[in-house]
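Narrative progress, year one. The postdoctoral researcher (J.K.) led the effort to move from monomer predictions toward full complexes, under supervision of the PI. The following entry was the first complex the group processed end to end, covering 943 residues in total.
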Amino acid sequence: MMQSSKFSLSKAILFSVFIPVILISGACGENKATSPGHGGTGKKMIIIGFDGMDPNILKRLMAEGKLPNFKKLSESGGFKPLATSVPPQSPVAWSNFITGMNPGGHGIFDFIHRDPENIFPYLSTSKTKSASKIVKIGKWVLPLSPGKVSLLRRGKAFWEYLSEEGIETTVFRVPANFPTTDDKARQISGMGTPDMQGTYGTYSYYTDEDTDKFENLSGGKVFPVDVYKNRVRGRLPGPINTFRGDAPESRVDFTVFIDPENPVAKVSVQDEEIILTEGEWSDWIRINYELLPHLQKAGGIVRFYLKEVRPNFKLYVTPVNIDPSNPAIPISTPKDYSGEIAKSVGLFYTQGIPEDSKALSEFVLEDGEFLDQTNIVFGEEQDMLGYELERFRSGLLFFYIGRVDQLSHMFWRTMDPNHPAYDSASKLKLVIENAYVEMDGVLGRVLDSIDGDTTVIVLSDHGFAPFYRAFNLNTWLKDNGYARLTDDTEGEFFQNVDWGRTRAYGVGFNGLFLNLKGREFKGVVEPGDRERLLDEISGKLLSIRDPKNGEQVISRVYKAEEIYSGPYLKDAPDLIVGYNRGYRASWETVLGSFPGEVLRDNKQKWSGDHLMEAALVPGILLSNKEIRSKNPSLSDLAPTVLEEFGIPKQEGMIGDSIFKEENPGKN
Amino acid sequence: MQSFNRAISGFFNLVITPFKAMDPIWSLALFSLLIGIIMLVIFRYTSDQQKIREAKSRIRAHIFELSLFKDEIGIVLSAQKNILIYNLRYIKYALKPMLFMMIPLALILIQLESWYGHRPLKPDESAIVSLKLRDNGLALSDITLTAGEGITVETPPLRIPDRNEIDWRIRALENGDQVLTFNVPGDEIRQKVIVSERGLVQVSPLASASVSGFTDTLLNPALSPLPGDSPVERISIDYPAMSIEIYKWHVHWLVIVLVLSIVFGFALKGLFGVEI
């Protein structure tokens, strides 16, 4: 008995001490996340990517003394235009930056690609594959294997080489990197990251006003609601429920209580309640969609914006973003990195392009409301930059901000009297200029945080230009006998194309393909006729003049093989159309529609653009280290980074370090 | 009921005081230890230890029988039947002490919920304050809310007439016990709002209620009683739920207590000479 007691006592002491120690050491473990800069060379480098920053605007504002930090940086190392990609589209341009290759090497040729098996357009940077093995039980479908999201960008990212050498690297929201690569670099995915509905951002809008005016929406859904006894009931759409045989959209119900007199409302959704006054944005609210009762949920986050209480009820809800603290699909490497950020700075937008320009274009948000929304995004970005700068010790930090790009797209009309949508009474003429000033503040914060041994590079992927007139490439091809339709409707996704009599078609913002025998599913153009036909179409495209003003509409047309190299050249469009300043492909033609007019005024709020001839919209390049390259290009940045860390330029990379003189410049 | 609540709350406050500035896991570990010991003592004196010992011995013996005669189907079936029978007997013997444990355990857990279920507001955090009126003919529009210095009312009142409810959104500005004043015709109700960035504080989302609510009083030890004739039925403040983090996982305090008290109970049963 005595022996037994002794044994129990020792066991008691063991449990009493050991288990709490384990638990407590676990509780303390939260602060043990590795910080960058403990491996590699000790070299320090920060790259800031300001999407869409234009060298001409930057130069002017620097000359006016409005950008002291940019001026300081340009005086220490230099400021040059940075040759962008062909075509100058963000996924293409940032892929050039990431891989040091051109599209023939990384396989991203446009925002939109097409499947030659059915000529159906799809988003170019990632694809989702459902579970290959399933079992059906009644109305339920249970996956036996996991689904998969794949990055379609090929070529090795520069940070993968850095990781292999043990250099601490953080890559924050670089476009064309969803899902993030599987290596030791800390990464949060950027442009290309979907919302919970699998789109690039689908807002919801609830109103009791006439909803007929909201036709053909592409960026969101409008839900008519009734205000009854000062209550509004709505349903928040979520992900497609693939656990159900009929794959319905999942929904979460919510109720809005409205005060009988005051402009204030309470939103009650699941176990959350928020009170908003008119014109107020909520914080992030977690939403859980039940996919399999009691077994499987998918969590997302939304913000509510109470636009108006009366006379009409108007409630905007952001796209359901992936919850970074508990992501339904991985948005970071390592997987818990997004949660670490969320824990430090709070929940944040995770969709690839967080600024909801579609809601502005589709008159759901007004100019000021959209600006407020972008200010929320920018606030989050600044918090996250602060967090990363605080952590940065050595290695590489890349940080991306898309604010200038999005505001330039949406507010060019406010500062350009020649724009068809120009409003001389607009009070927002300085929005774009102010965005540059804000980025100067960001740069100042970075410069203040570094020591003398840190190399800083500031770059943009392309510049900006006005978007005055929209060109319907497919309509032009039809009018010139290169494309034939089965009926007179505009159609979409090429549904009314007579492929047996069509020789060429346009997909994406700058791509033109021949309907080539042996490549396209109903190809008619013999490979031997390819060169002649491309020359013929190119010549005709270059000769187009705008009947409104006599301007040349297309200033340059490239054959893919002239400008691309690498294993994916076979997937490239046959021709890349470089539009003149002020012109761009229409929204309709991009996805395979054939509107009536070849050219029309762009009266939309989306008024600035860069999807034109690359030479017209170069990006910017500044550094605190002397830029010796005469014609630096985006493809030079990957070898530049590698050489800064003592790693030689890798096979397939077409550029050279910007800090070397002999660089010839590449696209 | 109030005196009883005050006494128990006072005891818990006394125990928690040295731990208030520490990570909640420490005080939860202590309470788990106390719960483990209390449960052992109750089990020891309310159960028939001899019969429990016998039932467990029988179960062990029949398990041993299973392994010895695994090729004799008749013996195996008989042993399985006996294992089932003695398991049911064991449960029967354990039932009585479990019933004795339930009441003190419920009281302890209710107290712990008031300490670990929610946390105070932090400066710059907002919360919804709700006031519910009795059906006494008072108009919701007659009620106003004013805030003291360390707190602000951010929204106009949101009235929901068919619920007799008014909501406001408040925002904490400074640490400390801040005060909201509800001006109800014929009455003025002062409500404390706790704003604190660190340390354990007893808070209750149901901040004030009329004393007639026995269940509310029992379930909300931090409740401030309202006079029985008050036109206000209840005032609630949606204090944020407390999050206890262990190895990057957010764990509910109840799970921690459940696991730790079982661990402590089994670890100490020999010391207390208890057969479980």
